[in-house]
Amino acid sequence: MADKVTVAVARKPEAIGREVILQGWVRTRRDSKGGFSFIELNDGSCLGNIQIIADQSLPNYETEIRHLGTGCSIRVEGVVKASPGTKQPTEVEARQIQVLGWADPETYPLQKKHHSFEFLRTIAHLRSRTNTFGAMARVRNCVSMAIHEFFQSEGFLYVHTPIITPSDCEGAGALFQVTTLNLAAVPKRDGVVDYSQDFFQRPTYLTVSGQLEAEALACGLGKVYTFGPTFRAENSNTTRHLAEFWMVEPEAAFFELEDNMDLAERFLKHIFRRVLERCEEDMRFFQERIDPQCIENLTHVIEQPFERISYTEAIEILSRADKEFEFPPAWGKDLQSEHERYLTEEYCRKPVIVFDYPKTIKPFYMRVNDDGRTVRAMDVLVPKVGEIIGGSQREERLDVLLERMAEQGLKTENYWWYLELRRFGTVPHSGFGLGLERTLQFVTGMGNIRDVIPFPRTPGNAEF
Ligand code: ATP
Ligand code: MN
Question: How far apart (Å, rounded) are the C-alpha atoms in residues 37 and 60?
Answer without folding.
Answer: 12
